[in-house]
From TrEMBL, chain B:
Protein name: Branched-chain amino acid transporter
Organism: Planococcus donghaensis MPA1U2
GO CC list: plasma membrane
Location of this chain's protein in the cell: Cell membrane
Keyword Membrane: yes
Length: 90, 231
């Protein structure tokens, strides 16, 4: 398990070191982080608990706090706090 | 190693450590009920350091699946990291290959997300090592703690903390989305395609994330190139 988790992590970082990729490939690779975040968030965020309202409320809280301009740590702690209060009402 | 960069990395990785805390704790606990010793559970977190794969491995061990199947499954789940580290390589400061091979071990969905969204031109090795150290530390330590105490967090806290990593992803994404339609489209299209895979069950999670990411990234590059040619 250790080897097969390591291979996809290490090969691109070592093999591509010092190599110039074609411009188009570079552009696609630069797009990857934001696309990854979209795919990591949706739809999994809605299914964090069996009760879907946890996911909906948690996502709304996180987006709300982030759009208000808070840093990542505040977004994380704030969303946890919102859901902790919410589950107190259940 | 640059100490200031390393500390900045530790700080940037703190939200990952918080997010890993409940997951590692639960993993330790589940590993115990699956029959793994404290040493085995901790060793798995030390050597594998991949949340989803480790959880799947537990359920496969319980099901009595052959070890080779567990290994193959782990590989498939982690193929998406090829894409992430290839992308991250564009952003990392050049360094010796052996150093890069070392910190490559610490690239997960979460450490990748924190590193790739940094607003600097090039990320230093020291910064990456800082982010990875705190994330890895949290993962390994809380795996052991979960196994040792053999109990979970109170239900309400467990439920509330399950938002942590997603909140972090959102907190990393939103500042880049502001006034940037390209970033908004990249995230929304990838999320939409991934949702399609989820509900139709066409692809397993690992493949689905990789395919939707790649499709969105290529599509947006193609669109923006057409836009440039027209104007």
């Amino acid at each position: 398990m250790a080897i097969v988790t390591y291979i996809p992590r290490a090969i691109p970082l070592t093999f591509l070191e010092g190599r110039e990729l074609p411009k188009a490939v570079q552009n696609v690779l630069r797009n990857i982080p934001y696309a990854v975040l979209g795919a990591l968030i949706f739809p999994a965020v809605f299914f964090i608990q069996e009760n879907i309202w946890f996911g909906i409320l948690g996502a709304a809280a996180a987006f709300g706090i982030a759009i208000a301009g808070a840093n990542v740590m505040i977004v994380v702690l704030g969303s946890i706090a919102v859901l902790a209060i919410f589950s107190g009402f259940l | 190693m640059n100490g200031r960069e390393f500390s900045a990395g530790l700080k940037a990785g703190t939200s990952i450590a918080i997010g890993y805390f409940p997951i590692a704790l639960t993993f330790g606990l589940l590993a115990k009920t699956t029959g793994l010793s404290l040493l085995e559970a901790t060793a798995m977190s030390i050597f594998v350091f991949a949340g989803a794969s480790q959880y799947i491995a537990l359920s496969l061990i319980t099901a009595g699946v052959a070890p080779i199947v567990i290994v193959l499954n782990t590989f498939v789940v982690n193929i998406r990291h090829f894409l992430m580290t290839a992308s991250l390589n564009e952003k990392m400061a050049p360094d010796n290959r052996w150093k890069k091979a070392l910190y490559a071990f610490g690239i997960t969905d979460e450490t990748f997300s924190v590193l790739a969204t940094q607003k600097v031109h090039k990320i230093t090795t020291a910064f990456a090592v800082g982010v990875i150290t705190i994330a890895y530390g949290s993962w390994v330590v809380f795996t052991s703690v979960g196994h040792l105490i053999g109990a979970n967090l109170p239900q309400f806290l467990q439920a509330a903390m399950s938002i942590a990593l997603y909140a972090m992803f959102i907190g990393l994404l939103v500042p880049s989305m502001r006034g940037n339609r390209k970033v908004v489209s990249l995230a929304l299209i990838a999320g939409a395609i991934n949702s399609l895979f989820y509900f139709t069950e066409w692809l397993s999670t690992g493949w689905a994330i990789m395919t939707s990411t790649l499709a969105s990234a290529i599509f947006i590059e193609w669109i923006s190139r057409k836009g440039v040619k027209k104007s």
